Amino acid sequence: MPFTPSAYNTYDFANRRHIGPSPSEMAEMLKVVGVQTLDQLIDETVPAGIRQKDALSWAPLSEYRLLEKMREVAGKNRVMTSLIGQGYYGTVTPPAIQRNILENPAWYTAYTPYQPEIAQGRLEALLNYQTMVSDLTGLPVANASLLDEATAAAEAMAMAQRSAKSKAKAFFVDINCHPQTISVIETRALPLGIEILKGEPEELVADQVFGAIFQYPGTLGHVRDFTAQCEALHEAKAVAVVATDLLALCVLKEPGAMGADIAVGSAQRFGVPMGYGGPHAAFMSCRDEFKRSMPGRIVGVSIDAKGNKAYRLALQTREQHIRREKATSNVCTAQALLAVMASFYAVFHGPMGLKAIAESVHYHAVRLRDALVAAGADVQPAAFFDTLTVRVGVGQQGIMAAARHRGLNLRRVGTDRVGISVDELTDEGVLTRLLDAFGITDPAPTQVERGFPEALVRESEYLTHPVFQMNRAESEMMRYMRRLSDRDLALDRAMIPLGSCTMKLNAAAEMMPITWPEFGSLHPFAPRNQAEGYHEAIADLTEKLCEITGYDAFSMQPNSGAQGEYAGLLTIAAYHKARGEEHRNICLIPVSAHGTNPASAQMAGMKVVVVKSAPNGDVDIEDFEAKALEAGANLAACMITYPSTHGVFEETVRTICEITHKHGGQVYLDGANMNAMVGLVKPGEVGSDVSHLNLHKTFAIPHGGGGPGMGPIGVKAHLAPYLPGHPEEGTDGTVSAAPYGSASILLISWAYCLMMGGEGLAQATRVAILNANYIASRLKGDYPILFMGNRGRVAHECILDTRGFADVGVTVDDLAKRLVDNGFHAPTMSFPVAGTLMVEPTESETKAEIDRFITALLAIREEVRAVENGEISAEDSPLRHAPHTVEDLVAEWDRAYTREAGCFPPGSFREDKYWPPVGRVDNVHGDRNLICICPPPEAYAAE
Q1: 59 Cβ contact partners less than 8 Å away, ≥ 6 residues apart
Q2: Distance CA 156, CA 149 (A)
Q3: Separation between Cα atoms, residue 667 and residue 551, nearest integer Å
Q4: Which residues, 6+ apart, have CB-to-CB distance to 817 below 8 Å?
């Protein structure tokens, strides 16, 4: 009897693993939406005039075939011992942290902690990070991380300009800063009209500048005391910034003790792999009086409704989404996951462990110096921590080749020197190989003197808080990490229906390769022939993104979406300048555009002109045309978000592009909502010139509790020559510290594209639109849907209009907190319209989970109705008391509703109920009483 195997493909990743609803569930959902087929829904949603003609071309790989390919590509990278330094160092990721943080979806699938009640674990870990940075730098306030060291330095320059009382227009840059840091500072300064003065620290003329930055240790190894420079700057009412190294500060005098106002740097060497450039958490700390000028996020301590200690993001009015064109920075992506890793590295080792690592690094550096000097080498500097620069004359190329032959990468410095930075991984074998490359056979001496003067020895204590003194047995560490993750709500527990943020599946197979040493252990400035695997992956990802978007070239350098916006606008500005039209400086931005857009335009030196919205949420074409005409020859660009932030495919997008081009401007199309376009619409074919893509949204890089992110930019051919450059490649216009940004996580998006295949990506877009329209159809009788397309459809997200509930005292906050009782993260609140909820289900959510969410919202609507009908007051309702904790459940109950109604509302799980660890957090208390480092032990004792 003939045998034919089943046609069911177990390893069809797109349809069996990534896309949530099954074919039969989709059929049920389509009935509710009121269409016969998915194609009919797409035809009613996406304007025919912008649809792409050709399907995406490549076939999918199964998960196991993908991992085979990844192994093959990883094998093309050559892992060497990189002693290049320059801000990137070998480090040990403790296995407990790799397994329980980096590889744990409870940590990497979480969203930014804007809803503090369901983010207490992340917030505590980030508070530990802030405390660690504050202690080591000797400055009282630290933020919860920035993108990388170079961009943190540029942010510090802008912060110094805001904070200084000096009227000077120039900023001094120590030439001992890392080259990529200097380049990013220069890029940031140019459109802002800041003059950069570079020189040795001794050349500083303080009354000529509003601020200055010094590197400590310097890029060539120098350690200096900048106390005199800081005093001179203060006398001139200017600001002192020090770029520094956390491991060095375990033994060296800290910036705060020198009088620095701001400290910046990278936490990479605290257990985070180099990853060919990132992601890594940058840090920033400052004096207390500067805290309200600090960019990025700050975790603070407040209280909940019962007066219990609760963590939250403090001073959120500094976020650019809220301030828009008044924002001073567009930083919205931190590097939360990497900051959490670095903080746990400090908890894992404690102050004694960190000091021991720092002393070991310095000991090996001194031994190396003494051995080289004994052999007659010219070694600089006289005072150093971990980095030496050796003058070798015409022998430079030969010594570097000899080192490579022995598995070592050294740094080329000029034409006659080599740089050597030892690190946590340096041992006797590395020293022996190093000396052998220099032709030295005598072993390095073991009896040495300290390599820096007594005056630079650190005298103050650090990491004295109990969290850094805990028992470091792995059992205790594992339980601490588990306790914190249990306090949070991430994608491993429930749907996170955030509009404009695309919290979709981050598949395990996509995540696995980033922890392989072949990808994790590469230095970003290693010779290109050692990174052939990376370059093959990046080239193929670039090719696929070009096909997806209709653009001709990509830069992978921007390491966040907002950084991509900024880079895209700089590319446009450089294009105009090259054509002799540098005067073009007006950027038209509709009110429906993404919240970071105005801040990015301001940073790029452009003047923002706001365009009105029509009543249906579309861009007001008449107002757009009038303002483009008024701008005339000064029009640089327009920035539009498509589909709009209102969740609609606007019919007029081509018209907007035509108007802009008619007046000589360029069109920047924000790619934040690309999840509604992949496989259906190519932005480069509808008239736009440049877009960034949020790879951490559409292309499956996880949000990591608020970062990492990647925002590469795609451009049409005429803009390609003006994409960001990098000093390692001899070009300028640098926007991020490493040439390919956070290169290691590009592998995630590449894996996603390979497993989905072209057709799978298009199907994901279709189902994302189906899921959003299903929610809109189920809810529109109870919650008005604020904006819909001309045929009554939404794109991949919909806005629920809850503003009317305020008439009876129910706020959008009440709805968000009540959803926590149902076990859900709230949708995006009050953006882009105040008092509303913006919902984006993504394609990854199953019908069962979407139905559970709908059940929760319908039950909440009944609770609002009870308030509207006078059955209960808003103040007495479960809405106002939400979220309910276990403490509420067991406490005396005197409320106007039952325990059952309060703690187990419809939609919530009973067996696997999520209990928030704190009640509603008091935001006002936290801002008025800002505490942004771990509270002292007495606070815990009192509790």
Answers
A1: 757, 758
A2: 10
A3: 13
A4: 117, 826, 879, 882, 883, 920
Please check whether residue 882 is in contact with residue 876, taking contact to mean a CB–CB distance below 8 angstroms.
no
Whole-angstrom distance, CA of residue 467 vs CA of residue 342: 14
Instruction: Report, as an integer, the average pLDDT of 56-70.
Output: 97
Q: What is the pLDDT of residue 831?
A: 84
pLDDT of 450-470, one tens digit each?
999 999 999 999 999 999 999
User: Across-strand partners of 119?
Assistant: 488
Type and span of the H or E element at 574: helix 561-578
Q: Which of 928, 932, 935, 936 is nearest to 294 (CA)?
A: 932
Residue 454: both structure tokens together: 């007594």
Instruction: Taking residues 282-311, report their average pLDDT.
Output: 94
Do residues 702 and 676 touch, judged by C-beta distance below 8 A? no
Pair 45, 30: CB distance under 8 Å: no
DSSP state of 289: G
Tokens of 173: 């840059």
Q: Give me the long-range contacts of 524-529 (CB less than 8 A, separation at least 24).
A: 524/88, 524/274, 524/276, 524/277, 524/278, 524/728, 524/737, 524/738, 524/739, 524/740, 524/743, 525/84, 525/86, 525/88, 525/411, 525/728, 526/80, 526/82, 526/84, 526/276, 526/409, 527/404, 527/409, 529/78
Q: Both tokens of residue 804?
A: 């009317």
**Helix, strand, or coil here: 292?**
helix
Query: In this structure, what token pair is assigned to residue 941?
Result: 């004792």
What does the DSSP assignment read for 803-840?
A: GGGGGGT--HHHHHHHHHHTT----EESSSSTTEEEE-
**What pLDDT was estimated at residue 933?**
79
Q: How far apart are CA 651 and CA 656, in angstroms?
A: 10
**What Rg do the C-alpha atoms of the chain give, in angstroms?**
28
- Residue count of the chain, please give it: 943
* Structural contact between residues 166 and 240, judged by C-beta atoms closer than 8 angstroms: no
What spatial distance separates the first Cα and last Cα of the chain, rounded to whole Å? 75
- pLDDT tens, 619-676? 999 999 999 999 999 999 999 999 988 888 999 999 999 999 999 999 999 999 999 9
Helix axes 179-192, 149-163, angle to 10 degrees: 40
* pLDDT at 745 exceeding the cut of 70: yes
3-state helix, strand, coil in the chain (%, to 5): 45, 15, 40
CA 840/CA 684 separation, integer angstroms: 24
Burial class of 922 by CB neighbour count within 10 A (0 to 12, 13 to 18, 19+): middle
pLDDT tens per residue, range 758-798: 999 999 999 999 999 999 999 999 999 999 988 999 999 99
Does residue 593 register a pLDDT over 80?
no
pTM of the model: 0.97
CB contact set of 830 (below 8 Å; sequence gap of 6+): 812, 836
Find where tokens 């350098």 sit.
557
Average pLDDT, the chain: 95
Pairing type for strands 378-380 and 828-829 reads: unpaired
CA dist., res. 368 & res. 362, Å (int):
10
Q: Phi and psi of 924, rounded to 5°?
A: -65, -45
Residues 796-813 have pLDDT tens digits of 999 999 999 999 999 999
Residue with tokens 């931190």: 334
Dist CA 644 CA 651 (whole Å)? 11
- What sign has the CA pseudo-torsion 376, 377, 378, 380? negative
